[in-house]
Amino acid sequence: MHKHVRLIAVAVAVTASLTAAAPLASAAAQPRHTLQTTASAATADTETVTLTANELAQIRLVAAEFQEETAPGTAAPEYTTYSGKGDVAKKIVSMLKKSPKLFKSAIGKAKEGKGAFDGWMGKQNILVRGAYWAAGGYAQSEVIDYLASLTN
To answer: What is the C-alpha separation between 22 and 41, in angstroms, rounded?
Structure first.
């Protein structure tokens, strides 16, 4: 289980790095006034929450912590049971809270149920989406249950 989570975390980190590098390579060829200052998974969909540069930077920090805590041989003693229980769900919720729009949208989708939430999550930024899918079923259920219990 841990090995699977680690592999997913590494895949998410590599994908995020490549995703972040691609716009930079093409940015030099674009006029300065057309550069995009926000990040989103898809632009034509109304369910996709657009993140500001600051929100994205904060989410990257949480994603890096998540990856570091699940990496082989680097887990701190308090994360030795980091396998899909409450700590993982708390980390995902803290990541969602970095963007008020993302958090509010997540609450609304959680109230609609797991299918709606999973569909919505599939349209979000790769860092958020990757951490959520790497968390596993039990933690995902905890995230959805917690968010559904909140009022937005």
So the answer is: 14
